[in-house]
Structures are given as C-alpha cells and as structure tokens.
Specification:
It is a single chain. This protein has 724 residues and is of the alpha+beta class. Among the domains are: 2-178 and 310-437 and 531-637, Vanadium-containing Chloroperoxidase, domain 2 (Orthogonal Bundle), CATH 1.10.606; 650-723, Immunoglobulins (Immunoglobulin-like). 33% of the residues lie in helices and 13% in strands. The protein has helices at residues 2-11, 24-38, 43-62, 93-113, 119-132, 149-164, 276-288, 318-324, 354-364, 373-387, 404-433, 438-448, 539-555, 592-605, 611-637, and strands spanning 76-77, 80-81, 187-188, 206-207, 211-212, 218-219, 244-248, 252-256, 298-300, 351-353, 471-473, 491-496, 512-516, 565-569, 585-589, 651-654, 661-666, 670-676, 682-687, 693-695, 702-710, 715-723. It has a four-stranded antiparallel β-sheet with strand order 19-18-21-22, with no helix packed on it. A hairpin with a 5-residue loop joins strand 18 and strand 19 (682-687). It starts with a helix and ends with a strand.
Length: 724
C-alpha cells in the first residue's frame, strides 16, 4: 500500500549504519522517530518529546564528561528542581552511559507513548530494542545511592516525567486546550456550503465525515480542535524572557518574538489585487494551477538554479513580496549556486516537469502520512548527514573528531532545543493571531464575488480579484454554468480539481482545470485537507529554518556533505493521494538553508499557507536556531554562570580547573570531602569541618570527582573537578 510504501521511502533518506555502528543515542532516537510515526501527528508535542529525550541522553552523557555541564540533572531548571545527590564514577564510563541512556529512554518512551493509537506496536518495538541491549525491564528501582546506573536512568526519567506534568503543556489532561475557543463555525467540507458568514481574518475549524491525521490515524472526532493554541506557555529551552509578551486576548497568550499581525482583508475599492490579503491568497490559487501532470512545463530543480538565499534577501514590504515570489510561474527569486564547493565544479542541470516537482514537494515536506512531523523530519536529516561517508564529525567544523556518541548527543541537544523552541514560539503566535487558512479564505472570497470591477456582476469589496486565465466570472455557455445557469456570475478558478476527481489514488490524478472557486481544495488528502490549527506563522518555515541553522553550525559548513543533499523519487511510487510523479528524479539541495527554503515553498504549492505565513517564520526560525545552538555550546563548554550551575547555590567550588587549592563555599556545614578518580576508586578522604579549602597539589593532572558529605553523613553533592 502507498501509505506504508512512503514510510519505507522516507526511511531510505538516511545512509543507515548497522546497529552495531550506531551509538546508543542514535538507536534510541530512531526508536523515538518510529514511535512518532505511529502516533497522532502533533508537531508541538513531538518537538517537546524530541527535546526532553535529547536532554535526558545529553545529561547522562555529560555526567562523566570532564567539561560538559548538565541541563536538568542536579539543576533548578526554570522553577523545577532536579535533585541529584551524585553517584560514584564508574570504572567503565561507556558501559555506564549505555546503561543509563537506555533506562532513561525506555522509561520516557513507555510513558509518553502508552496512549498512542498504535501503542501495542510501539511498545513492542521499544521493548524489543531494550531487551536486545541486554537490560531488564522489571528493574524499576530509582534508588541510585547504591551506585546503580540503571536506577539513575529510572530516577532521571521519573524526574523528567514529573517536570513534564508542570511545564505548561497540560500533559496530565492529554494536552487539551484550557481557554481557547474558535470564533468561526466549522466549514463542513462534504456539503460545499456558503462560507461567507465567517470572520475572514480568523481561523475556521474543518468538519469531516472522516478525519485522518497527518500520520494516517483515524480520529474519532469529526471536527478536530485547534492543536496547542496555548503552547506559548510551555517552558522553552533558549527563548529569552526579554522577547516574551503576555497579551490577554480572551486568555493570556505567551508570545515570543512578536512579528506583528498578518494583513487583514480590506474593503477594496475595485482592483482587489492591490489588497495584500487578496494577493497572498490569490497566489495560492495561482500555484495550485501548476499541479497538472499533463503540463509539460520544465524547470531546472538543481542547485544551479534554485537556492542560495539569505536572510537579507527576504521581503519586508508588500512590494518586496511581489518581487520575491513568482506569482505566475511559482518559486522565488533565488538564483542558485555557481559551483559545488566540494568538487569545484558547476552543479549539473536537472530538468523536471514543474507539476511533478511541485506535487512531490507538497507531499515530501508535508511529513505525512506515516512520517515523523516537521521536527522529527529534521532529525532524520541530521541522521542522514551524520551517516554521510564524507562527514567529518568535528563539532562546529573544528577541533577533535568526536566519537559517534558524543557527536549524536551534542547534535540532538542543539537540534531538540531548537525544535522545541520553534514549537513554543510558533504556536504561541498561532494561538494569539488565530489567522485564517487558504481553504477558508479562498472559499469565503469566492462566495462574495469579485473585487476588481464594480461595473461587472457579483462585485463585492471582499471578493476575489479577477485575473485573466486564473480567476474569472462564469458566463452563460461556460461548461461550469450549470444545467439551469445556476452558476452564472459565480467565480471560477483554474486550479487542482481536488479529491472529488480521484477514485483510486493508485491510478488516478485529479489534474488542473476550471472549477467553481467555492469548491477550491488544497493539494492534500480529503480526509486531512489542512492541519487543525491557525496559519500564521508557518510551523514548517520556523522549524525548518531553525533546523537549517543548527545543521550549519553543528557541521561548521552551510553545505551538505559533498556539496549536495539528495532524495530519490520514483515514478508513480511516491505520491499518496493520487498517482505520480510521471518520471524519476532527485530532490537536491546544496545547503541546509536551501532545503529549508524549499520546505517553505512546498506549503504554498500544497495550499496550506499564503506567503505572509512563510517569511516571518523563516526569520524567527533563524533566530531560534542560533540562540539554541549558542546556549547548547555553553552547556558543552561549561560556560554558564556559576549561579545557575548549583541547586539553590548550596555549593560553589572554585577555581575549576584547579592548580593547587580548591576553595569550597557552602550554605550548610560539611564534614568530609572524598576524591575519586575517573574509574571510581577512592583516592583520598579529607576532613573539612573547619576548612573552606583543600590543598590538592599532590593530585596528578586529570579528571576527578569530589563528593562532599555533610554532618548528617549525607552526600550533599558530587561534582567534577579538573586538575591542571
């Protein structure tokens, strides 16, 4: 079946290494991605899952690293205290990391996916991996005071689970909305009712006979609720308090990096195309006309002609938008790359039908069905890059070559933090601005009439603009006029004809032709149509731009390894809800930003977003990616302030690294300090009841652990120290 076939195709996106070659972090990340594919398609929730699991693995890796600082473990993280009393360093660090990571991931994934619609399959897969690693699922102790690394994994998972129950996501109530209610009544898709009674600036729910989400799960609710309109309240990773506004609009909306409102519909005084709202949504109609497999128009889809756009090229004014996007032909104003920096040669041209390219983009970047949502999709791209035979795993493109484990751990933390922040930022904006989607806006304007010429029939200031050979009035004698001319003077558009023209998706295509504008469809499945949340801003644009910045910074190179990332598309074996494409071709991207920009354009061809949803998402995404990477680097290098590195400032050790003397400041009385080597052997026990410093001049250069014990003979803290 095509649904499963697409899953298999997407999985080939990576140069998969054997499980023996993959790090334990990679194995568990792949397990998480598989769980996401089988779960409900909820990009906000899965961005959070990717972040929390990335932190879980990173912290347990960092625990025995000579430099790195934890994010959660042993910290007061934004109001939640992750208590940690320390643990004796292991004799075999890699084995301990393997065990801790496996237990923390096992417990987290079992918790987060136990209510998945495919829970039996998911939990069986999680258990199969865990058992294959030689671990015991019946071991549930969280008492790591016995120096059990399995217990520490269990304990840390329980703490992250508790943290997640108070982080603003409303997980305890299955992430349900608490305050938001839609302003518009649902659009009943199967009836093609008049849609002119809505507020054309606000989101409209969609009512289905059967709704199947983006992961292929049938939902027992005919009118899906707005997903995560209050997600701005969720505790982020690197989003800054100074970029936050709390704006009350029936409920407190937490809005980061506020870009200002999208354009609202104008009461056009003729010439409606000059209204930005009408231009943006008319462009969606224009690009829908490119989706006909019988259209022989060829375009070069290679990096020689597409890509190489930077943030300074993005439009700001309405006039800039009209220059940036090619209204008639599709695409943007990018000019491509002169040379492949890896080979020093020009990129080879690849001529492909525009209709095949645009239809494949709409499906490939939609991340469904049976895919891993946009944040998960970028993790598959990260894994693809990590597996590439030409990748050199120097973090940031410099310094030592890292082990697979360290590379994966650090990459996942930065990318997970960025994806989570993109969800918090974007859905906070979606909930506040509550902006309309193309299917509602286009059908609304179509019902109103035309806004170009008051001397012509059906003039209305809120109508569609008349555009020759794209948006026109139906006249007597038109094939769409109807048997009794009931459609005369209604609006028609030249667009993809929609799911009504597809009986068998394995063999049929809808094609492009004139249709009643009030029956316009996005290029999506009839059981999905449009994601159940507001449009402004585009989550795809924000996620993708943030991810492209992370990949650029992690690898130290804006270009994919070998100067080009690729994905092969097979003739008549890729599209899910109609047959196609008509030929084999390869998606190609020179840079990570090129892939991100292609993602953004795909949502316009797919009928999901107008251009106004796109650009500001890209701009905010770039900021999110850079900020998340910079914060992750501080954790890797232990350059956060001392104040944030200790629970309640109980203990401060300085200097660290030390030369001879280690100073101790504590808010409680201490009786003893124990020094351990990297293998966990006790080297020295020092009475410090009357001291605030320890002379360690006899200690050899290297990494050690110090355990501080109070008068109750309890371990107050265990911290890493480095002797120069």
């Amino acid at each position: 079946m095509k649904v499963r076939m697409l899953l298999c195709t997407l999985l080939t996106f990576s140069f998969y290494l054997s499980s023996a070659q993959q790090s334990i972090a990679r194995q568990w990340n792949e397990e998480l991605l598989n769980a996401i594919r089988l779960d409900y398609a909820r990009p906000t929730i899965h961005a959070r899952n990717l972040f929390h699991t990335s932190v879980a693995m990173y912290d347990l890796w960092a625990l025995f690293d000579p430099v790195a600082e934890t994010v959660f473990l042993g910290k007061d993280y934004k109001g939640y205290t992750f208590n940690f009393n320390g643990i004796t360093p292991p004799g075999d660090i890699e084995s301990a990391r393997h065990e801790m990571i496996s237990y923390v991931m096992y417990r987290l994934l079992i918790h987060r996916f136990s209510a998945s619609p495919n829970a039996t399959e998911t939990l069986n897969s999680i258990n199969t991996l865990f058992n294959s690693l030689g671990y015991d699922s019946s071991f549930v102790s969280t008492d790591y005071s016995t120096n059990s690394y399995a217990a520490l994994g269990n304990y840390f998972a329980s703490e992250i689970i508790n943290f997640g129950l108070q982080d603003g996501a409303n997980e305890a109530n299955i992430y349900l909305n608490r305050y938001y209610t839609p302003s518009n009544d649902p659009l009943i898709l199967e009836l093609y009712n008049d849609n002119t009674g809505i507020n054309p600036n606000l989101w409209q729910p969609l009512a289905f006979d059967v709704f199947i989400d983006q992961s292929g799960n049938e939902i027992p609710i005919s009118t899906p609720a707005f997903l995560s309109p209050e997600w701005g309240e969720v505790i982020p990773f690197a989003l800054k308090d100074e970029d936050l506004e709390i704006i009350n609009d029936n409920f407190d909306c937490y809005v980061y990096n506020n870009p200002g409102p999208p354009p609202l519909i104008q009461d056009s005084n003729e010439n409606g195309i000059e209204d930005p709202y009408k231009w943006y949504f008319s462009l969606v109609v224009a690009w829908s006309s490119h989706l006909d497999p019988n259209d022989a128009t060829l375009i070069d889809i290679s990096p020689a002609s597409i890509g190489n756009m930077n943030i300074n090229d993005f439009p700001e004014t309405f006039e800039d938008y009209k220059s940036f996007y090619d209204f008639e032909n599709g695409g943007d104003s990018s000019m491509g790359h002169l040379l492949n920096p890896s080979t020093g040669m020009p990129y080879s041209q690849q001529l492909v039908k525009r209709s095949d390219y645009s239809r494949v983009l709409a499906e490939f970047w939609a991340d469904g069905p049976d895919s891993e949502t946009p944040p998960g999709h970028w993790f598959t791209i990260m894994n693809y890059v990590s597996d590439h035979p030409d990748i050199v795993k120097q973090f940031g493109g410099e310094g030592p070559v890292l082990t697979n484990l360290e590379w994966d751990i650090k990459s996942y933390l930065a990318l997970g933090g960025a994806m989570h922040d993109a969800a918090v930022n974007t859905w906070g904006l979606k909930g506040y601005y509550d902006y309309i989607r193309p299917i509602s806006a286009i059908r609304y304007m179509a019902g109103k009439g035309q806004s170009t010429d008051s001397s012509l029939p059906s003039y209305d200031p809120h109508g569609l603009p008349l555009i020759n050979d794209l948006i026109e009035l139906i006249e007597i004698g038109d094939p769409l006029a109807g048997d009794t001319n009931e459609n005369v003077n209604k609006m028609k558009v030249k667009s993809w004809k929609g799911p009504d023209y597809i009986t068998n998706p394995d063999t049929d295509t809808a094609g492009v032709d004139w249709i009643l504008a009030e029956k316009w469809w996005p290029y999506q499945r009839p059981t999905f149509v449009t994601p159940p949340f507001a449009g402004y801003l585009s989550g795809h644009s924000t996620f993708s731009r943030a991810a492209s910045e992370i990949l650029t910074l992690v690898t130290g190179d804006p270009f994919f390894p070998s100067g080009m990332g690729t994905f092969d598309v097979t003739q008549n074996d890729f599209l899910v809800f109609e047959e196609g494409p008509t030929e084999n071709f390869t998606l190609q991207w020179a840079t990570y930003r090129d892939a991100s920009d292609q993602t953004s354009l795909s949502r316009i061809w797919g009928g999901i977003h107008p251009p106004i949803d796109d650009i500001k998402g890209r701009i905010i995404g770039e900021k999110i990616g850079v900020d998340a990477f910079n914060l992750a680097i501080q954790y890797y290098n232990n350059t956060l302030s001392t104040e944030s590195n200790n629970i309640d400032n109980q203990v401060v050790l300085y200097p660290n690294p030390i030369i001879n003397t280690l100073n101790i400041q504590a808010n409680t009385s201490l009786i003893k300090a124990e020094i351990y080597n990297i293998n966990g052997a006790l080297l020295n026990s020092i009475n410090i009841s009357k001291k605030n410093n320890i002379n360690l001049h006899n200690l050899a250069t290297g990494l050690y652990f110090i355990k501080l014990i109070d008068y109750n003979n309890e371990v107050l803290t265990t911290q890493k120290i480095i002797k120069k």
